[in-house]
Amino acid sequence: MLARLAAGRAPERLVSLLQGPPGCGKSSLAAAYAASFPGPVAWVTLSGPLAELADLVEACCQALAIALPGFSDHAARLLRGEPDPARLLRHAAGLVANELEALAPTGALLVIDGLEALAGSPSALEWLEHLVDFFPPEGQLVLVSRAKPALRLAPLRLSGGLVELEGQDWTLDAAIAEPGGQVHAQAAGWMAAVAWAARAGAWDPGAVQTFLRESWLDLVPAPRRAALAQLAALPDLEPGSLAALPREQAALALDAGDVLLARDTAGRRVLHPLLRELLGGPAASDDAALTRAATLEAEAPVDALSAYLEAGAPAEALRLLVPVALELVERGAVERLARLLEGFPPPTRERAAWQWARGELGRLRGALAEAEAAY
């Protein structure tokens, strides 16, 4: 599959489309390919319905500016200030393509993940069509979508300029594994992560457990983790057992697909042993501690954040981090903020909120040092 994506680097093949259901590994396949790309890589992740064309253009400009220092937001500003942006779509796409060609003459990769979020925005899709038309021949555009996008791709398809891969075209195996048994965790769906573990016979089980715990379970919101724990507690996932669960938990089991299931000695469907062990282990959250943390949010958000971390719910703690950091910075509570940041597991330290809070901590320490020096 990586070789087929690499074929998209040829000058006559500008666009690659990865399409498939949630959790089949689209994003992770794209991430593995991006890691091998020889030039600059810009990654755009779309989430939720984007009603505004400017959101897409601004996200692309920001991602390209990170990959290519000096890349401007001229196209985004052009559309943002225009009462009738539809008349400038072609011009805005040309601005992006021209600047991309100037700053990356040997070619750059632009990945747009979550294309299904644009289904309700015809103007955004039209702008993307123009970008495809103008995209520099040395570069490559990879589109990742859960559904077939409403893009005018027939001309590219006829000319051989489009590489199309669907979920059933690949399997998630050791070809996408990093050295040491670690796996890319870019997938939006949790199913892809567990699918790797389910096929992990060639990998060290301890490394797989660590990957699943740090890159998936620790980031799952508490309510969803509780639902998964209920599935793991069932003797099997046959209809009779699922009937005892609320509908959403039963649907979660049915949506998991056979890749997450195994058969016991009696031939009954059960949750894959790796997943059952993980959900029943120490990473499973303490419901009583979660309830206590939730009751603290209104009156004592700092204590609530600490309680969520102690309960093994870093995703909930991350949700409170920005207001808590602002409060602690205002109070000058350097050590308290530092201890809180150290309590987050490594995967959450890559999130924007954690990075921002760490920057605020650094600025606070600098300000206090300057104040001490002045006295």
Written description of the protein model:
By secondary structure, this protein is α/β, with parallel strands linked by helices. The chain has helices at 2-6, 26-36, 53-67, 74-80, 89-103, 122-134, 154-159, 190-198, 205-215, 222-233, 239-242, 247-255, 273-280, 287-296, 301-310, 314-331, 334-342, 352-374; strands at 15-19, 41-45, 109-113, 140-145, 162-166, 261-263, 269-271. Strand 3 (109-113), helix 6 and strand 4 form a beta-alpha-beta unit. 36% of the residues are buried.
Percent of sequence in beta strands: 5-15%
Radius of gyration based on Cα positions: 23 Å
Q: Detail the poorly predicted runs.
A: 171-188, 281-285
Work out the helix count: 18
Secondary-structure element string: HEHEHHHEHEHEHHHHHEEHHHHHH
Helix share bin: 40-55%
Mean pLDDT: 76
Terminus-to-terminus distance: 63 Å
Q: Outline, from the CA principal axes?
A: globular
Secondary structure: number of strands: 7
Question: Which strands sit side by side, in order, in the main sheet?
Answer: 2-3-4-1-5
Category from helices, strands and their pairing = alpha/beta
How would a crystallographer describe the biggest sheet?
5 strands, parallel
